[in-house]
Amino acid sequence: MEWCEPPIAVLAYMDIANSRWLWLSTLPVVSVVLFQAAIFLRRAWADGKEMGLSDEQLKTGFKTGVISAIGPAVAVLVGMLALIATVGGPVAWMRLTVIGSVAFELPAAELGVSQFGYSLGDGDISETAYATAVWSMTLGGTGWLLVSALGTPHMEKARQKLGNGKEKLIPIISSAAMLGAFAYFLTGEVAAGTPETGSVAVGGLVMLVLLRIADKRDIQWLREWALGTAMIVGLLVGVVLQVTVGSWW
Amino acid sequence: MSESEIDTNVADGSDSSKDVYENDFVPYINKWGRRTNLLAVALSFGPAVALLTVFGILPPTQAVIGAFISVAATYGIFWLVEPLSYYPVLGIPGTYMAFLSGNISNLRLPCAAAAQESADVQTGTPQGSIISTIAIAASIAVNTTLLGVGAFALVSAFQALPALWQNALDSYLVPAVFGAIFAQFGRDYPKVAGVGFTLALAMTTLLELGFLNFLPGYPLYVVIIVSVFGTILIARWMWENGMIHPPDDS
Fold it and tell me: Does residue B225 fall inside a structural domain?
């Protein structure tokens, strides 16, 4: 990311991109996200109680969700700066609250303006090219929404097929899927360089140690803060490595 | 033997709780999940429509189609692969919520996993799904608020941070999260963790060296498919051969 560059010159379309009308236009879809979260939360709480989960467990789940979200949300906020600089505040906010991640939205916006031969960060991007970027991000994001909206009820079949319907296998299958997915994420980070590799390794180690202590002494709050702590320590180690040894690959 | 104990535990609680989950919770979630996600498809066009109606800016159809095709070629495979791959972890409600709210690998999955650990429920069970629903809802409240406030106000504060720290927050928070979650699940299944890591590393290396170039598009999707489903299949094989056991849920 180009943090060291001088502030980007104010682009012609930015008045439009940061206008009140665009802020207003993002509110409906963000409301849907919040509405869904609210009704799912209410229902899960009520049904969870009926299913024998204790108040304690439900509250712990909520609290851990909040605590664990703060760090990554701050990280997303930092990544959002790149989007704010290119597509304006409202669209950046909406795209990162609904569907997207910086890793998708920036390339999608780039593909939009590239239809007119521009590249993001160019000083003279036209209003039309900017609008194309907005369309490109919007249309590109609908794929995930449509698949999740229409496909979710059928995914259980795919999973049962893989698990062969054996009940006791389900936790193993789920953990294996998680391990496979995160192995894929973290090899990407390892390939990125030495500091990233250090962050991965230390984040993992801190988590292991904290969960072990929490289990042995039965300290509940430690479990809630384990991920947050691992994140901060991993972040610090990444910085220290970057400053001292740099990247070997 | 602890395994038979677990059996009866699960059987005791699970008959009625499974009923509630499958006959009450899941139908409700499917009904409202579909409605809200489809509504979001329509409303996500808000800014594009505002540009058209308020400012009269409509890009030429050709440019929109061109942009869409480029995006679909790059990301289209992920529209299918990601929901399928994350579904076993996110569960039914989590899938609707996570794909509506985005930021799945860096935010929703870690939150769901951490909450399941601290509430002491197992991934993939109805109880696990309830807890991950609650945790993801909590994470949505947090990141919508934080990003909203941030987009308005905090932007200048962050720009005042030294470049080193901006870069650090951007680069190193996420890998630390990945390492931590991997370790959390690897604790229960170290052998499966080894298999997953080896598969992902091998596939990433093949990709980097260009051995996957015979596949259409940029074959990153093969890496994720093989990592997730390869690990599932090998874990299943290991379980059938008595090499791994679920952890005691004490």
Answer: no
